[in-house]
Write a structure and sequence with these properties.
Layout lengths: L1 E6 L4 H10 L7 E7 L5 H8 L4 E3 L8 H13 L5 E4 L8 H7 L3 E5 L11 H8 L3 E8 L9 E8 L6 H29 L1
Parallel strand pairs: 1-2, 1-4, 2-3, 4-5
Antiparallel strand pairs: 5-6, 6-7
Bound molecules: 5-O-phosphono-beta-D-ribofuranosylamine.
The site of 5-O-phosphono-beta-D-ribofuranosylamine has 14 residues, from helix 1, strand 5 and helix 6.
Length: about 190
C-alpha cells in the first residue's frame, strides 16, 4: 500500500511508520512525505531514509483554495493508495478530499469526539478529564469528525503538564497508527 504521509513538525509518528516499513511483511511503503512548511524535523526524517519530500506552504499561494489544489496535485504526483495526516496541522480542503476521498486518515491526540481541533491535549486537561488518549480516523470535511478507526486510552496523572501528557499519548499514538496501517494494508492486499 503506497502511503503519502503529511507532517508539520517533529515527525515521530512518521518515524514509527518508516521504521515499520523496514519489515517487508508490513505491506506499506512511504512513497513521499509532504509538509506545509520547510525546515522541519519530519522532512529530515524522510530525507534520511531517501524518501521524496514536498512542501506546499499556504503563504506561497494567493488563497486557501489554490493551496488546497496545489497540495492535491503534489500528493497525486505520488499516486498514493492512502494519505496519512500524521501531525499535519492544517485542515485538508475540498480539492484533497474530493481526489482522495475515503483514503485519507488522521491521528489526533484525544478521544474523539471529545476535544477536536489543534489543542486536544490542552483542552482535555483544562476540562479535568482523568482519562484521555488518541484517535485514528478517516478525514471528512469537518474538524476531526470522520469515522473512527481506532482509539487508545491514556490516564492523566495529577502532576501532568500538557507536554508530559502529550508525550505519553504520542507513545501509544505511534503504536496505534502502525497497527491501523498494518490492518489497512492487509485489507488493501486482499481487496
Ligand atoms: C501528534 O500527537 C498528533 O496527533 C498531533 O501532533 C502530534 C504530532 O507529533 N496533531 P509528531 O510530529 O508525529 O511527533
Amino acid at each position: 500500500m503506497r502511503l503519502v504521509v503529511l507532517v508539520s513538525g517533529s515527525g515521530t509518528n512518521l518515524q514509527a511508520i518508516l521504521d515499520a516499513c523496514e519489515d517487508p511483511s508490513f505491506g506499506c511503503e512511504v512513497v513521499a512525505v509532504g509538509a506545509d512548511r520547510p525546515a522541519i524535523a519530519g522532512l529530515d526524517r524522510a530525507e534520511r531514509r531517501g524518501v521524496p519530500t514536498f512542501v506546499v506552504a499556504v503563504a506561497d499561494h494567493p488563497d486557501r483554495a489554490s493551496w488546497d489544489a496545489a497540495l492535491a496535485d503534489a500528493i497525486g504526483a505520488h499516486d498514493p493508495d492512502l494519505v496519512v495526516s500524521a501531525g499535519f496541522m492544517k485542515i485538508l480542503g475540498p480539492a484533497v478530499l474530493e481526489r482522495f476521498g475515503g483514503r485519507v486518515i488522521n491521528t489526533h491526540p484525544a478521544l474523539l469526539p471529545s476535544f477536536p481541533g489543534a489543542h486536544g491535549v490542552r483542552d482535555a486537561m483544562a476540562h479535568g478529564v482523568k482519562v484521555t488518549g488518541c484517535t485514528c480516523h478517516y478525514v471528512d470535511a469537518g474538524v476531526d469528525t470522520g469515522p473512527i478507526i481506532a482509539q487508545r486510552a491514556v490516564a492523566v496523572e495529577d502532576d501532568d503538564t500538557e507536554g508530559s501528557l502529550h508525550e505519553r499519548i504520542k507513545v501509544v499514538e505511534r503504536e496505534m497508527l502502525v497497527c491501523v496501517l498494518r490492518e489497512l494494508g492487509e485489507r488493501h492486499r486482499s481487496a
